[in-house]
Amino acid sequence: MRRITFDLDVLRTFVTGVELGSFARAADRLGRSTSAVSAQLKKLEEQAGTPVLRKSGRGMALTESGETMLAYARRLLELNDEAAAALHGAELEGAVRLGLQEDFGESLLTDVLGRFARAHPRVKVEVRIARNAELLERVASGRLDLALAWEAGVATPHVERVGTLPLRWIDVAGAGSVWPREDGEPLPLVMLEAPCIMRTAATTALDRANIPWRIAFTSASLAGIWAAVAAGLGVSLRTPCGLPASVRALLPHETTLPAVGELGLCLHRAEAESSPAVERLASIITQQWQGLALAA
């Protein structure tokens, strides 16, 4: 079998185009002409020996081989960037205080901290998992250097919107769905304790749709929410991120419950000009987030 060595610049163009949803935008982002990007994609397909993109309306979509290629391309680029950071950024020292939503405790935190620690072993990272209001308050008071929090209409001085995730009704996995109800009773909701962005979004959407509801279960943590939903006590409203196998996110065509839209995600910094360690961690979080958002 002929040995193939993929060109990392070509892979970076491919991944960037997919993540931006446009190879024209990828050309702008990477400082290349559209013809150069087209040539790179042609080279990638020649190396892969199979099409990785197909026409879809006015744009392009991944083929099955393209989906496989995307996963490997991300891994190759991450390893390349990690090696570069380790060689040229090993001098980074100090500490970074990071705040995250509980939703990202497993789905994002492990990969982010692993990559950062391997590249910058001299930097100490302190992590706090908390609700939105607490994260924003800690950033504003300087007790956190960086926080990944839901967009809640409350801005801090140094905030960057990194993307969105769809809001989905969450029901028990498998048989025994809580909705639709046949007994005419109000829809039982399983929610975090107020104040909660998603709790407000859920009740507002149900009121607008004239669907009666009641709060059947409240919890201070997501673990309690997942346990209650899995037990069939009610439905919840979250993003598809970090769901355990015992529950599932209902797609719009699977339910008559009202669509709720999307929820933005923001990266908040305590300072306008953060330390190199904070900026490097922020960069890794953004990269990992892009992959997580596509998977969701």
Task: Summarize this entry quickly.
With 296 residues, the protein is of the alpha/beta class.
Note the topology.
Elements: H1 8-20, H2 23-30, H3 34-48, E1 53-56, E2 59-62, H4 64-88, E3 94-100, H5 109-119, E4 123-129, H6 132-140, E5 146-150, E6 158-166, E7 168-172, E8 187-192, H7 197-208, E9 213-219, H8 222-230, E10 236-238, E11 247-249, E12 262-269, H9 276-295
Parallel strand pairs: 3-4, 3-5, 8-9
Antiparallel strand pairs: 1-2, 5-12, 6-12, 7-10, 7-11
Helix pairs in contact: 1-2, 1-3, 1-4, 2-3, 4-5, 5-9
Please provide a written account of the structure.
The structure is a single chain. This protein has 296 residues and is of the alpha/beta class. The protein has three domains: 8-88, Arc Repressor Mutant, subunit A (Orthogonal Bundle); 94-165 and 264-294, Periplasmic binding protein-like II (D-Maltodextrin-Binding Protein, domain 2, 3-Layer(aba) Sandwich); 168-260, Periplasmic binding protein-like II (D-Maltodextrin-Binding Protein, domain 2, 3-Layer(aba) Sandwich). It is 41% helix and 23% strand. The strands form four sheets. Strands 4-3-5-12-6 form a five-stranded mixed sheet, sandwiched between helices. Helix 1 crosses helix 2, helix 4 (64-88) runs parallel beside helix 5 and helix 5 packs antiparallel against helix 9. The model has no long low-confidence stretch (mean pLDDT 86). Pfam families: HTH_1, LysR_substrate. This is LysR family transcriptional regulator. Belongs to the LysR transcriptional regulatory family. Keywords: DNA-binding, Transcription, Transcription regulation.
